[in-house]
Specification:
Layout (H helix, E strand, L loop, with lengths): L21 E5 L4 H12 L3 E6 L3 H13 L4 E5 L5 H15 L4 E4 L15 H22 L8 E5 L3 H4 L5 H21 L5 E7 L6 H5 L2 H5 L17 H8 L10 E4 L8
Parallel strand pairs: 1-2, 1-4, 2-3, 4-5, 5-6, 6-7
């Protein structure tokens, strides 16, 4: 990518908000997930990076985490398969002994001009990746979460505004909003909080991989801030939702989108 996304704010100084915590971050090899991993490590957490097959990106993320003095476990696996979630949980427990935070962040998107161009194969892939796997991971991790644990889901501004070229993707992001709210109601008595983050246009590898060059050139300029956001600009939101600072917050979606007013 040119320019490269900015995943780390060098001025960010952790204050131990996640000291002793263990966090699973899906899609943590690059983009938003990488930025969240860096911030979590700076706040004292150990992180598990779950990703599909982007090994070089994952290794670079792990290298930086170790430079920051953090502990990291890489798990390359296909989360579309329900059994994969159990593998992730077992490997995390084997390495770190517990789980405190689950960040469901991975996603795919495929630009299509019309719903007529969305094949059954694409539709199934999008839903299996973007929402079915969230169910699978929560089911696998839930027996190991304690009071004070946090689940954070990445949704999108498209869940609220829609997107004419991302109909299936936007649909899954809308499902994540309702999943977050419903799961929060289900788990609140257990003391487990469930929230979501809805990014606006963020400069991640998903963008040039999805959109034609002419769209990439003007990506984000229609926001009030007239630019795309950088991954590191979302990370503090995920820290807040994972920490005790948000102990009275559950079932909510926090919007980080360059000033766009969202109608929910």
């Amino acid at each position: 990518m040119n320019p490269l996304p900015i995943s780390e704010n060098p001025a960010y100084q952790g204050s131990g908000k996640l000291r002793g915590k263990v966090a699973i971050i899906t899609g943590g090899d690059s983009g938003i997930g990488r930025a969240v991993a860096y911030s979590y490590v700076k706040e004292g957490a150990k992180v598990v990076i779950v990703y599909l097959d982007e090994h070089r990106d994952a290794q670079l993320t792990e290298q930086r985490i170790r430079e920051l003095g953090g502990e990291c476990l890489l798990i390359p696996i296909d989360l579309r398969e329900e059994s994969s979630s159990q593998v992730v949980i077992e490997k995390t427990l084997e390495a770190f002994g517990k789980i405190d935070i689950l960040v469901n962040n991975h996603a795919v998107q495929f630009v299509q001009k019309s719903i007529l161009d969305i094949t059954a194969e694409q539709l199934l892939n999008t839903f299996q990746t973007n929402i079915f796997s969230f169910f699978y991971l929560v089911k696998a991790v839930l027996p190991h979460l304690q009071t004070g644990s946090s689940i954070i889901n990445t949704t999108s501004i498209t869940a609220y505004d829609g997107h004419k070229k991302l109909i299936d993707y936007s649909s899954t992001k809308g499902a994540i909003v309702t999943f977050t709210r419903s799961l929060s109601l289900s788990l609140v008595k257990k003391g487990i909080r469930v929230n979501a983050v809805a990014p606006g246009p963020i400069w991640t590898p998903l963008i040039p991989a999805s959109f034609p060059a002419k769209d990439v050139m003007k990506f984000g300029v229609d926001t009030p801030m007239k630019r795309a956001g950088q991954p590191f600009e979302l990370a503090p939101t995920y820290v807040y939702l994972a920490s005790d600072d948000s102990r009275y917050v559950s079932g909510q979606v926090l919007h980080v989108n360059g000033g766009h007013i969202v109608e929910s």
